[in-house]
Queue: 3 jobs
Job 1
Amino acid sequence: MTEEKLNIGIFSAMYSQMNGSAHAVRFLSEAIAELGHNVHVFAPKIVDGYKKPKTLHFHDLGGACVSPKTGFVLSFPFHKYFLCPHDLDVAHIQTHATIGMVALSWAKQLGIPTIGSHHSPMQFYTTQYIPILGRYLAKNDLLWRYERHVLEKYDLTHTPTLSKKDLLLNYTFKEPIVAMTNGIKDFYFQDVKVNGIREKYDIEDKKVMLYASRLSPEKHPIRIIKTFMKIHKKIPDAHLLLVGSEGPSTDAVKKIVKKRKYSDFVSYAGRVSYNDLLKLYNTADLTCLWSFVEAEGLVLIESMAQGTPSVGANASGISNVIRHGKTGYLANNLDQFEEYVVKLFKDDDLREKFSKNAKEVAENYRIKNIAKNWIELYKFARDKLYPLRYNRRPRNERVNMVKNYVRNLPNVYF
């Protein structure tokens, strides 16, 4: 019997940006298309021209870049209100402002279910993207209220981690909310030869901690650099290498790494190729991420796939990725962060143990398996959840149905 092929609409304001949430949307879109399903991506300023699955279709919604350092594009695609393909089975909405609202209207017109993935809280990011308006909207939790209002309209809400779900529940978002990793591509699991990579980035004979991240205030790169000075005093051959796309903190990072007291043990390589990034994950002794607003922290999972232990903030998202005492350590403050990094730098056997564990845990994050879960959730939303909402059944019926259904799906949590 031939498997049913779905027509899925993916709606995202940041499909072509360079950040973890954008990577997650691209990885998922491509993985579902590789399974043979038709994926229609609706996004502004889509960068095409790369080899993609034949069943992955792009619909450029236009828009204007309002924040060059972040690549954020503001799009109000009302001119395409009536141009949505009329054969979609489900709308998967990845951003919840302008494009998300249009997607909700489209879905209502077409009579199809809506699923919303909550990645980055607007409350924490809008002040970077749209500084003046963002600061105004962030007052009095207006953006949390807006997102809560929108997500309540979906048949199902998704978060990448249980701790992110807990964050939403703390802000009184309503169930049903499921937690499932965004996943990473098989590319990150491949065996690589790292010959020459340490020489290329001038980190020969060093104990290397890699910080792979977009340079933004919420990632606290300056605080990590200053903390690493204390680590370097205890581990003289320790080196901090920062890589990643530019962001609001780029100028500050470039300035501080040039200072004499930091330049010997901290370097910033900017955005590197994916092949170099993979080799750096492999050759690094540790990776780290110090952020309190992560949905998941894909860079940690990518490094785990190469068998690299991590140290990160014991906070939303990260706390579900790093297995404390097994694949790395979760720190409650920067003093603990320093302690754990020094401990791992000093203990080669412990790093080797954590490395083996990291590779085993990373297998749970392969995107091809996550995509299969999504196909089941899409069918479930279409056949079971949408009829309940359409017929105005009590929300608790939908909640209980989701709770019971996801028990049968691997690595999906309620």
Job 2
Amino acid sequence: MTEEFHRIRRLPPYVFAEVNAAKARARAAGEDIVDLGMGNPDSPTPPHIVAKLVEAVQDPRTHRYSMSKGIPGLRRALAGYYARRFGVALDPETEVVATLGSKEGLANLAQAIASPGDTILVPNPSYPIHQFGFIIAGASVRSIPYTPDEEMLRAMDRAVRHSVPKPTAVIVNFPSNPTALLADLDFYRELVAFCRRHGLFILSDLAYAELYFGDKVPPSVLEVPGAKDVAVEFTSMSKTYNMPGWRIGFAAGNPRLIAALARVKSYLDYGAFTPIQVAAAAALNGPQDSIEEMRRLYRERRDLLVKGLRAAGWEVPSPEGSMFVWAPIPERFRDLGSVEFSKLLLARAKVAVAPGLGFGEHGDGHVRIALVENAHRIRQALRGIRAFLQGDNLGPALAEKELAKA
């Protein structure tokens, strides 16, 4: 009775737990912590979406069990979004499933298509569910580069030639969490051609499709002719419409994969509360001006944060998309690793960030900074970071002492 359960044994300790525990201790001690760790949008859901929820919940018929794969109106609304945004035609009956957020959809598809002994190709670093959804399902994960370029494609080719058995699927996520990189349609064309040639499924996480800041508009892999032969794509209402707690997302694409996901879900849930689905359909079908407002807000926060960090002596790239800055750890603290540096930043600057190690071992040289606080709080965070970085020239030896006290 003392042995760990098999699937739990395959999960490492939750990397973010150490920083979260330190953050909780600091707040319990009365410290004001600026939390830029979790990608949790702070803006309210647009009023017309909330109004539709309130209207729908007044009808007692909506209080009954819903549909596991999503009510027809919601699936049609998602198909309409893909037609407008990407020029992609989807059959709402066979090529769309509503999910309880994209995270649940990815995890349940992993249960549907993966078995012990299967190999899944996953970028490293990447969002944790991309690898751990398949690890929980019993499959093995092979890391590939996270950049949408020839390096990733060459790594996939090596994996196909040298993995036994041959990989089942590859995960892609652009705009990326955590790296904020964007892919273009030329990359997706090469990816689709490779996967069709070798019989691999493509699982594309497009949760940040509408979070971009320049002229480079994120495409869908389903725009590539023939992509639906091998690809399924996950989208989410969480970031696009500031609806993270509503837990509504979608899977769309290959009918075989959609059917497999729908079958697993039919055993596990009855779908989201019907009024939430009705409101989500209203979001997709209604006015879209809130999306541009959301982009403007994150663009302003990005510019403020990046400019302030650079002024403090911390050189970070300015992301083209997503709601994150993927920041390389300053050189003199790099030996600490991302977890210890994140704890040090919390102790000295009173700012919480996400350690890059939580997204894979190749992320350990970075921290992820989320744009989830208003300008006033970001300026407060920048003052703390600047004082920390410039104030006493803290080096690794002193850093260890500080961490021991934290």
Job 3
Amino acid sequence: MRADACIIGGGFTGLTAARHLAEAGARVVVLEAQTVGFAASGRNGGQIHTGHRMSQAALERWLGHGHARDLWNLCEESKALVRAQAAAFAPDAPVKDGLIIAAHDRTALRELGEETDYLHQHYDYTAARMLCAEETRHLTGADYFGGKLDMGGGHLHPLRYARGLARGAEAAGARILEHSRARSIETGDKAATVRCEAGSVTADHVLMATDAFSADLAPELAPYIAHVESFVSATAPLPPEVNAQILPTDAAVADTRHVLDYYRKSDDGRLLFAGREGYWSVPSDVTPIVRKRMLQVFPMLKDVPTEYAWSGTVGITVTRLPHLGQLSPRVFFAHGYSGQGVALSSIGGKLLAEAALGRRERFDVMVRVPAKAFPGGPWLRKPLVAAALFAFKIADAF
């Protein structure tokens, strides 16, 4: 096949890029190894966060005030983009406003307060406010030292959102080929060719939207992307008396642990709870792992069965900021959303599209964030990442 742009990956990044390019008149082909939203885009917690995993004050110290503000503006745009795309293409996945960041200790509570004040004073961000322990308990149904309620954040049904993005991309003229795993990328002076088992796509540009799996196609990216397996479960619909106690305002929650708990309610009244993660392999049934943690947070759920459980692969970077860049004049990539991919991968896709259309200014805002390699080389990298994450898990217990 011949196209103007070949996009590898049918998740939030690839589908957003596909729609923007198709609406600009480009011939677009999307290659997806499984089905739309099969990997992280369909299996995540559906939470929409404000900012990056690094505070704005820390970003300013590292990158300078101007660059940090540009990153903030992209983050704010990313939330608006999710809301707009969900409303236009995924009416069955409406965004529900409200995200609570729950402090698991006093140090985390103090840092949340400092960040909330900083964003208010320096970025005029007034959508977030601090919560005392009692109010946090009332809004979550669980015991924390306090928290932050961010009405600029929220949550949605991620797989429905991904499928809606696919409909929007196809309506704009993009062609999505599922069960078409990309095996290699060959670049030439006039075009690049992506080869699959059953054929190939030759295009002016190739956009890699493969997140945690980027190194499978581009081994040179391996030092910059690692992954963990996040485990999620869904209870049976909550009994009325329990449903009234847990998340009565239907906000989503993420706590401040390194290996965090995050949860929300589904449309049919289930609790979707994610807690714990794996670094090497995924058990055949993650239910006992997640349920043990869930009952520590919500003992009142001991008689409510878990009916579904699944896992998803999350791409992470050393900096916990997305990694965007270019492998050759014709091949662009975006990955490493580090647990905040609902919003950041959506804007990542838009930036990839802009770059492929020759408008690099905003794409380069992300490219200028220095990428840091994971230590250890090809043999020790994964054991060292696993050891570091396990150390964070131990630290969370104290």
